[in-house]
Amino acid sequence: MKNLIVMTLAMLIAGTAAAAGTTDHFLADRHVERGVKCESCHVNGDTSKPVRKAQCLACHKSYEELAKKTANVHPNPHFNHYGERDCTTCHKGHQQSTLSCSQCHKFNLKTP
Ligand code: HEC
Ligand code: HEC
Ligand code: HEC
Ligand code: HEC
């Protein structure tokens, strides 16, 4: 009986972990799901090189266009004194994204 309870608990915990795993849905995964190829971000499929903004802008056009999309976000993550850096200073491919502004500021922004 005691073993059964322990086993049930272990299964419940494992189940929760699996569910949490599916919410770990990083930017690259979401792109791949939309039909974006690895090579669209990784030039010639070389994953050892950093992904530069030119790669992202091939589809996302320009900082100006992005700034329009986030015009109602304050401060605008795509139009500010920090300049037009590589997107990956904030948007990560296969891990939790960050906010480069946080080195100096405390803004309530969440990077997808
Ligand atoms: C081959 C085209 C393509 C490339 C390359 C690409 N994207 Fe996207 N991205 C899309 C499409 C299509 C969408 C969905 C429509 C939209 O939100 O604009 C999207 C959505 C997004 C979103 C919002 C939705 C989400 O899932 O978070 C972010 C943020 C994003 N892209 C960032 C990037 C960054 C950063 C790069 C480069 C590292 C990049 N994209 C490269 C096509 C692309
Ligand atoms: C300083 C950090 C930072 C940089 C650099 C940055 N972003 Fe973002 N981005 C954000 C944040 C934060 C959001 C979410 C804004 C919000 O709250 O809706 C966002 C949202 C987006 C979205 C979703 C916009 C929508 O439809 O609502 C796209 C697409 C995107 N970024 C693409 C890019 C691309 C491509 C680059 C590089 C050219 C880039 N970003 C550079 C922080 C950044
Ligand atoms: C939306 C752009 C994007 C797409 C699509 C993408 N990646 Fe990445 N990838 C990145 C970025 C950005 C990095 C740099 C590290 C990070 O941000 O996680 C990276 C890093 C990597 C690395 C280096 C190890 C690591 O995790 O840091 C490997 C391996 C990799 N990607 C494999 C792939 C494969 C395989 C695919 C296709 C299934 C793919 N990537 C699709 C953006 C992308
Ligand atoms: C290396 C440090 C540093 C980084 C990184 C940085 N800032 Fe700043 N920022 C400053 C300083 C210094 C000032 C001027 C002093 C002040 O007003 O706080 C400032 C002022 C500002 C202001 C006007 C004052 C305010 O707080 O309302 C805004 C808005 C702002 N930054 C947004 C951003 C955004 C958005 C990012 C990220 C994309 C960013 N900053 C990244 C240092 C930084």
Automatic annotation (TrEMBL):
Gene3D superfamilies from the UniProt entry: Flavocytochrome C3, Chain A
Named cofactor requirement(s): heme c
Keywords, sorted A to Z: Electron transport, Heme, Iron, Metal-binding, Signal, Transport
GO cellular component: cell envelope
Organism annotation: Mesosutterella multiformis
A Pfam short name: Cytochrom_c3_2
Chief place where the protein resides: other
Phylogenetic placement of the source organism: Bacteria, Pseudomonadati, Pseudomonadota, Betaproteobacteria, Burkholderiales
Name of the molecule in the record: Tetrahaem cytochrome domain-containing protein
